[in-house]
Amino acid sequence: MEIRLKTLLEHKFRALLRSATVLAIVAVVGIAIPGHAQITGNTARVLVQNGRVSVDHAGDLWALAPGQTITSGETVVTGIDGYAQFELSDKSVIEVFPNSRMVFHPNLSNWHDLVDIFLGKIRLQIQHLTGGESPYHVTSPTAVISIRGTVLDVEVEPNEATTVQVETGLVGVRHRMFPGKEVSVETGQTLRVVPNVPLAAIKGTSPFVIAGRVARVAGETVARIGIPGKSGGSAPKGGSAPSAGSSGSGASAGTNQPAPAPGQDGNSKQQQGSSPPGDVVKP
Question: pTM of the entire structure?
Answer without folding.
Answer: 0.62
